Structure formats: structure tokens, C-alpha cells
Amino acid sequence: MTHPPMQKQDALAALAALAHETRLDVFRLLVTAGPDGLAAGEIADRLGVQAATLSHHLKELKSARVVHCRREGRSLIYSPDFAAMGDLVGFLSENCCEAGGCATAPGGGSVTTDRC
Question: Which CATH number fits domain 8-93: 3.40.605.10, 3.30.70.790, 3.40.30.10, 1.10.10.10?
């Protein structure tokens, strides 16, 4: 399924949501867990975050559309929205190399985009 390219406001919301230490830790933990995700309680246990605090951060990540949430029985399961992250990287690099020469990633590797 193809969807429209990410808009600036969506990119800003995603970046703002991830620009907090706890939310970034949550997101990275969810990426490690993969598409199956993790229950909110397990996220809290693994990161040592209180449930009320975690609830706030998960709400922010969900609102910014960088995580999905589904109910399984009595548990809320959170997983990363890999498509949204791909869209964000695409948005950030959509004009890559237009000015000539390709960007290099840290360590000397090439930045991988459709244009490079």
C-alpha cells in the first residue's frame, strides 16, 4: 500500500516526540522487540520507568504516530511504526545529493538513499 510522502508537520511531530530521553529509550527498545512489540508493563520493567510516567510517554509517541498500540486481552502492546520511520528518513534525505557529491556517513560509508 502506497501512502503520500511525509509532510513537514508530521516530521516535526515525530522528531519532537523522539527528542526526549525516555521516549527515545522506549522507541529504541520497541525497535529491538520488532513488530510483535512489548506490553506496557514489560517496557516499564525493562526501562525502570513508573507506569504513570511511561503512560504519558507512550501517549506522546502514539500521538506522533511513531508507535502502534493494540490490545491483547488485558494488555496494551506497543510496537514501532517502521513505515513512519522510513517515511521520516525519506523526508529528511529527500534532497540528498542535489547540490552535487554524495554525503558520507560517519565512518566513511555512503549514505544510502534512493538518490545516492
Answer: 1.10.10.10
